[in-house]
Design a protein that fits this description.
It is a single chain. The protein has about 350 residues and is an alpha/beta fold. It has one domain: Aldolase class I (TIM Barrel). It contains 12 helices and 13 strands. It has helices at about 5-10, 15-30, 70-75, 120-130, 155-165, 190-205, 220-230, 265-280, 295-305, 310-315, 320-335, 340-345, and strands at about 45-50, 50-55, 55-60, 80-85, 100, 105-110, 140-145, 170-175, 205-210, 235-240, 260, 285-290, 305-310. The strands form 3 sheets. It has an 8-stranded parallel barrel, surrounded by 5 helices. Strands 5-6-11 form a 3-stranded antiparallel β-sheet. Helix 9 (about 295-305) packs across helix 11. The model has no long low-confidence stretch (mean pLDDT about 95). The structure holds flavin mononucleotide. Flavin mononucleotide binds next to strand 4, strand 6, strand 11 and helix 10.
């Protein structure tokens, strides 16, 4: 398929990046973008948490915060979509501008601060979709956060889980956004234990994942992995945006917020690798951070990811990126002699 995004990129980069994101949502919602021929390869199909993924490439949280474009995204070739982060009450997020392209580094800095329409509106949208016979096959996750003005974090996550648990295939407790004061402190052993015990109970057996930061120390990672294994959490998303600014050259590199995209690839993949070791491959992992090619998706899978996700790659590659990654992954698997993507998971550790 023609890579039309290359043609529009010179225009897109002139726009404020949050405005460009808004236009992308509008275009997807109104089916204004070309829909590619469906691409399927049985080697890319896998079962994780009892769910069938037609391919391992998912849209990371933050792009479709309000669950407005799930089917259009699946039509573009993603195997799954993670809606959110959603908080119990709607909130506007931080003042604009709050999202910046690091063009020379192919990265992004954002400090959106969980701008979203609140769980009720999102839940109603998910309910409508579930009762619509025309919906696309594909896995849908719901990523939950807490409101900025809420001091009882557990209450917010539990409220989100209770409202959303029957409306998505999996739920995510996001304790790793750097843009909500105090949120990342929930990754500490004691706080995380209380939170995940309450979340596990509220989820009533629904697949429950935790999303962690890429900035944790070895001890912190060890604690998190222990808590996950001990309390039956189903998976770990590795991970969120980083506070690091290592090696950046772009104009906006000193903006506050979380950094993502290409410069995050190496660090996030090393964290993923370590988490796979610490959990001895017993917990499915989702590898996120800087994926923009089939080779990078493959590297995450070999490091231990059962699935991958991306967001920032779309800023530079357009929505057609998911399809291109899947096509490339398919060629890599064939070349490497893997009959299934599942066989490649954690291959670096063998
Ligand atoms: C603009 C923007 C908004 C994001 N919002 C969220 C969010 O609401 N919740 C969340 O868990 N992660 C959020 N993320 C983090 C992504 O889901 C992902 O973990 C991170 O960007 C690394 O992946 P990438 O390098 O492919 O972008 C956001 C990222 C970006 C760039």
């Amino acid at each position: 398929m023609v890579d039309y995004y290359r043609l529009v990129w010179p225009l897109v980069r002139q726009l404020d990046s949050e405005r460009a994101h808004g236009l992308a949502i509008t275009a997807l919602k109104n089916r204004l973008l070309p829909i590619p021929e469906p691409f399927g390869d049985p080697r890319l199909v896998s079962r994780v948490w009892g769910l069938t993924f037609v391919n391992p490439v998912g849209l990371a949280a933050g792009f479709d915060k309000n669950g407005e474009v799930i089917d259009p995204i699946l039509e573009q070739g993603f195997g799954f979509v993670e809606v959110g982060s959603v908080t119990p009450k709607a909130q506007p997020g931080n003042p604009k501008p709050r999202m910046f392209r690091l063009v020379d580094d192919r990265g992004v800095i954002n400090r959106l601060g969980f701008n979203n329409q609140g769980i009720e509106r999102v839940a109603e949208r998910l309910e409508r979709r579930l009762s619509s016979p025309g919906r696309m096959p594909g896995v849908v996750g719901l990523n939950l956060g807490k409101n900025k003005d809420q001091s009882d974090a557990i209450a917010d996550y539990v409220a989100g889980i209770e409202r959303g648990r029957d409306l998505a295939d999996y739920l995510v407790v996001n304790v790793s956004s750097p843009n909500t004061p105090g949120l990342r402190a929930l990754q500490g052993r004691a706080a995380l234990t209380s939170l995940l015990v309450a979340a596990r109970q509220a989820a009533r057996g629904k697949t429950l994942l935790v999303k962690i930061a890429p900035d944790l120390t070895e001890d912190e990672l060890r604690d998190i992995c222990d808590v996950v294994l001990e309390h039956g959490i189903d998976g770990i998303i590795c991970g969120n945006t980083t506070l690091s600014r290592e090696g950046l050259t772009s104009r906006h590199r000193d903006e506050q917020g979380g950094m993502s995209g290409e410069p995050l690839f190496r660090r996030s993949t090393e964290v993923l690798r370590r988490v796979y070791e610490l959990t001895t491959g017993r917990v499915p992992l989702v590898g996120v951070g800087g994926v923009a090619s089939g080779a990078q998706a493959y590297a995450k899978i070999r490091a231990g990811a059962s699935l991958v996700q991306l967001y920032s790659g779309l800023v530079y590659g357009g929505i057609g990126l998911a399809l291109r990654i899947n096509q490339e992954l398919s060629r890599i698997l064939e070349k490497q002699g893997f009959a299934s993507i599942t066989d490649a998971i954690g291959a670096d550790h063998r």
